[in-house]
Structures are given as structure tokens and as C-alpha cells.
Write a structure and sequence with these properties.
Layout: H1 19-36, H2 51-70, H3 82-97
Helix pairs in contact: 1-2, 1-3
Length: 104
């Protein structure tokens, strides 16, 4: 991605956002960009070569699909229930745990 020091975040509005909300949206924007713009699953990594690669692809697909549904809830982090906030955090942690697979 060029320039690499800018990250447009499609799921955020132009109003003020606290950093915890920006962190969630920014990380998932990176996943979306990697899959959609950089063609992660057709790139340099052969995700069919073994069980570890297949599991990583499945997890990244799961996170990508979850984010597709989640971002449309259009709620500020501060108006979320504790349950949704905790789920968002869990999914963010799962994404971070798989960041080594996000290269094309």
C-alpha cells in the first residue's frame, strides 16, 4: 500500500473517536485491505500447504466475515454493551495473534 504511512479507515465517520475505537477499526481495516486490495489468499502464501496454513486462512476468513457484519452496527464504542465491547476485544486479540499471516 502506498503511501504506507496513511490508513484510510472506511468504517469510521469524520467525528471524534477515542483511541480504543480507532484501534479496533484500524486493525480490521488492515485485514480488509490485505484480503481485498492485496489479494491475500491468492498471493505469495500457499494456504493449502499444511494444517497450520489452512487453519490460519480459516481464522482470517472468519475474522474478515465477522468484521463485515460487525462494522454495520454503526455504534460508538461508548454506546456498546459490555458484552459487545468484550467480543470486539476478543476478535481484535484473535486478529493480532494472526498478524504474521498478513503479508502478500
Amino acid at each position: 500500500m502506498k503511501p504506507s504511512n496513511l490508513l484510510p479507515i472506511d468504517s469510521l465517520h469524520d467525528d471524534w473517536c477515542d483511541k480504543d475505537e480507532i484501534m479496533l477499526h484500524a486493525c480490521f481495516q488492515l485485514l480488509v485491505d490485505c484480503i481485498e486490495k492485496e489479494n491475500l489468499f491468492e498471493g505469495a502464501t500457499d494456504f493449502t500447504q499444511d494444517d497450520e496454513h489452512e487453519a490460519a486462512k480459516l481464522e482470517l476468513q472468519t475474522l474478515y466475515e465477522w468484521w463485515g457484519m460487525r462494522k454495520h452496527k454503526d455504534q460508538s464504542i461508548h454506546s456498546l454493551s459490555t458484552r459487545q465491547y468484550d467480543l470486539d476485544s476478543e476478535m481484535l486479540i484473535r486478529l493480532i495473534a494472526h498478524r504474521r499471516w498478513l503479508w502478500t
